[in-house]
Amino acid sequence: MGKKIKFWLDNWTDNDSLAEKFPTLFQLSNDKEASLDKMGMWDGHAWCWVFSRNRVLRGRNTGLLAKMYAILSRVQLDKEIEDMLVWKANNIGRFLVKSLYGLLNPSPSLNTVFSFRGIWRGLVPSKVEVFGWTAIINKINTRNMLVKRGILDTSAANCLICLVEEEMVDHLFIHCYKHWLIWSKIINWCGLAWCCPRNLANLFSQWDSLVYGKFQKKAWVMLFFFVAWSMWLLRNDVIFKQKIPKYDTLFFLIVTRLCLWLKAIEPNFPCSSSDLLRSVEGLIRWTNSQTLRTGVMWSPPMTNRFKWNVDGSSIEKPGPFGIGSVLWNHHRILLGIFSLSVGILDSNVVELRAVVKAIELSAFNCFLHHKHIIIESDSVSVISWMNNLHNRPWIHHKLFSSAQRLASCFDSITYTHSYWESNHMADHLAKQGVHKISDFVAWLLPP
Ligand SMILES: [Zn+2]
């Protein structure tokens, strides 16, 4: 029934509550105290989860939502059965002393691997890595620590950045207002939203899940270390050199440190620190050359198939989006293009609109009826939505059902992923579409 269980706050899926697992979505949710039965509706005997939030999801938040739906999809409410407690430490769901003993004496190695997973990866200079680790385990010499050891007088325990609170690790690195602003600026810079965690260790353990892409995940971990390290250097300058802290310079320094080390681990990374300061896009979209060689070449469709390369793009961020697409046959002959504006939307929705527009235009053109259509996009999320009914966010159901209805015009329709670099013509048309007042569609189909 789900009446007694709190959707966000109780542990009812895995080991953590959904609020801990998806802090950003929790922050956006309309009802943080809601019970399970308030977070969806019955469709006959099937239960459909519905996430109501106070604003539109943007960027990677839609990916987080898809992840959360993947967890929720494993749980079905039952109208007949009342909520009950289940002992999660064994498979039978019933309390046994043996399983309690197992819980109280976990293998020590497991504990350490879990808490500090991802720290020792050699992505940043070792002094920065060691520093990050000591900060996370709360072992650096903050003023509060020096007071405890009798090195400083109790009157000297306060943080020299805000002068208000005691200087403890979690205060200094997260909760001190100026430093909280720096984290917020970094997170906004990457197009994400966040909910400030309780401590630095929690922040680190959630950090990794915020971005996608192998290189991007590395960069993101490096960013964590450089933020903490740069804050520490600034704090030392304030104490030992009586410097006045400048937070714009701090942000600049963090991005510069990140950029230098990104180039150290990936010499082909093309962006300079000023490129990154202007826009983080170059980092988000970059893939290393090995991936380029194996996957980035565009290929024409097979005989008697027709391929749309679609894309959504914007010129400035935040700013309006355009969508664009090119239709090819197996002789690499261009058969049609479109380019139009879709306004300000979430980037995944923009990509979805481009896919649906390509289907609509194909359905309007009799030449393409009963043919094999391929739609290629560089959005991993949208391709996974199109290929798997269960991955689709309910909120876009109109677009999905329109695509599904029109798909009957063709013999087949397949959705494939391409890398951004192989989709540049569609990207170019999408950018041209940003400021178009009316839709531009051109067919070059054989008579
Ligand atoms: Zn402070």
Could you walk me through the main structural features you see in this protein, from its secondary elements to its overall organization?
This protein has 19 helices and 8 strands. Helices cover 43% and strands 12% of the residues. The longest helix is centred in the middle third of the chain and has 27 residues, at 214-240. It is an alpha/beta fold and 447 residues long. Residues 107-115 and 290-295 have low confidence and may be disordered. The protein has 3 domains: 18-97, no CATH class; 115-284, no CATH class; 296-443, Nucleotidyltransferase, domain 5. The protein has a 6-stranded mixed beta sheet. Bound molecules: zinc ion.
Structure summarized in a few sentences:
The chain has helices at residues 18-21, 23-28, 60-72, 97-104, 108-116, 126-136, 143-148, 169-175, 177-189, 200-207, 214-240, 247-265, 273-278, 281-284, 289-295, 347-364, 380-387, 397-406, 424-433, and strands at 40-43, 46-49, 305-314, 321-328, 334-343, 372-377, 412-417, 440-443.
List the helices and strands and how they pair.
Layout: H1 18-21, H2 23-28, E1 40-43, E2 46-49, H3 60-72, H4 97-104, H5 108-116, H6 126-136, H7 143-148, H8 169-175, H9 177-189, H10 200-207, H11 214-240, H12 247-265, H13 273-278, H14 281-284, H15 289-295, E3 305-314, E4 321-328, E5 334-343, H16 347-364, E6 372-377, H17 380-387, H18 397-406, E7 412-417, H19 424-433, E8 440-443
Parallel strand pairs: 3-6, 6-7
Antiparallel strand pairs: 1-2, 3-4, 4-5, 5-8
Helix pairs in contact: 6-11, 8-9, 11-12, 16-18
